[in-house]
Amino acid sequence: MPTSKFSVSEKYSYLNGFGTYNESEAVHGALPIGMNSPQKPPYGLYTEKLSGTAFTAPRHENQQSWLYRILPAAMHEAFETLDLSDHQSTLPTGAMKMHQIPNQIRWNPFDFNHDVDWVRGFNLVGGAGDPAMKSGFAIYVLAAGRDMGREAFYSADGDFLIVPQHGVLDIQTELGRLLVRANEICVIPRGIRYRVTFPDGPVRGYICELYQGHFQLPELGPIGSNGLANTRDFQVPTAFFEEDESSWNVICKFNNTLFSASQDHSPFDVVAWHGNYYPYKYDLGRFCTIGSVSYDHPDPSIFTVLTAPSEHLGTAIMDFVIFPPRWLVQEDTFRPPWYHRNVMSEFMGLISGDYDAKTGDGFRPAGASLHNIMSAHGPDAGTHQAASQAKLEPQKVGSQSMAFMFESCLMMGVSEWGLKTCQKAQRDYQKASWVPLKSHFKHPDGGAVNGKQ
Ligand SMILES: [Fe+2]
Q1: Cα dihedral: 104, 108, 112, 115 (round 10)
Q2: Is 416 a catalytic residue?
Q3: What's the pLDDT tens digit per position in 322-339?
């Protein structure tokens, strides 16, 4: 069942569908018919093409949109490096310097920050790769409380997958407006300019910036043509523009450095657009969860909402996976996740409630955990004890809860801020979770085990 309690106001209207061609015009007749770039676009608008893939990308990968706007995006002064010395910014500068460590890490809930806006509210936790080489990703904790002024932001480095944990994001993009609340996500593809305000006070959340490729829906294979995240439930903004000839700044994230350029008009002047490269949002409550109805449980890939594939078939640079409320009905089965070591790195966050695979209060909303490549993990001792002896009736887990995972085939480094500066990393996570595990092995012959009788 969808969990979003809000209705969409008239201020925000949406198209349905993701990965498909869409078109929208805020003024009737602003979209040219039959051609993309007429000599004289309707109403004296300029035509601008926004490419999300190489011109020659295969047809099934090709992403582009045509914009019809009052002035082209190129009409601005030169970009200058943005001076961030007046606040705590944890954006990486240049190449990311990361701690590469095998230890399991868990973080207590990250703090709010009422004093910064969207652009200054990213706290780098970790990542891999390099935006200049279009490889890898970065993960940020978002904490901000101030509305952006007459500023627009865009990243040339990657697509932003935004996962609010608390609060409401009012996102004005070049292609229209998005209202995004906790338990919803949105994706702003690289290059698209946007401005974020917080109509319900300070916000907190998580962001994955994808340097390589774009997110797409996973293949469904034997599941068939429906299930998981359905195409029609992704919402795409309709065209919305403003005529504003006051002073604006455009802030650009370019190879992990921020730049700013001034201009004498609003960047949000797109009157009409069409194409398949656009921002979108999705209510996680609409996810159609699939699971075992006999025994065992499937790999957590069954919970994938969006995936960003690598060149290697079936291996993702980034999967966005959720653990929504669901029923467990398997017979004769240890129902929590198995103990495992994974060739992928797993960064988890919690939007709300209690994650069903962990007991106690170590993993709380707005906190996080990282189980890196081949770092062993699984249920803590208490969860194992309880699940091993539980009566296996149909059981609803995760009520009022939503956990998620950013899972990557790349080894995830941890930033200095994530490891030390934020002071949220738990010192005793590994020790408290798994050291208490006891051997229950009983030799069938009652013989010696590890030298013990
Ligand atoms: Fe795992």
Answers
A1: -60
A2: no
A3: 999 999 999 999 999 999
If you measure from the C-alpha of residue 435 to the centroid of ligand 1, how many angstroms do you get, rounded to a whole number? 17
Question: Above 60 in pLDDT, residue 452?
Answer: no
Distance separating alpha carbons of residues 365 and 350, to the nearest angstrom: 5
d(CA 348, CA 345): 10
| pLDDT at residue 89 in the model | 58
> Cα(377) to centroid of ligand 1, in Å?
6
Contact criterion met (CB below 8 Å) for 229 and 187: no
Catalytic site includes residue 346? yes
Identify the structural domains of the chain with CATH numbers, from first to last. 14-95+114-284 (2.60.120.10), 286-433 (2.60.120.10)
Residue 201: alpha-carbon gap to chain centroid: 21
Distance 337 CA to ligand 1 centre (A): 8
| pLDDT at 446 (0 to 100) | 78
- pLDDT 10s digits, 336-352: 999 999 999 999 999 99
Q: Is 377 among the residues known to form the active site?
A: yes
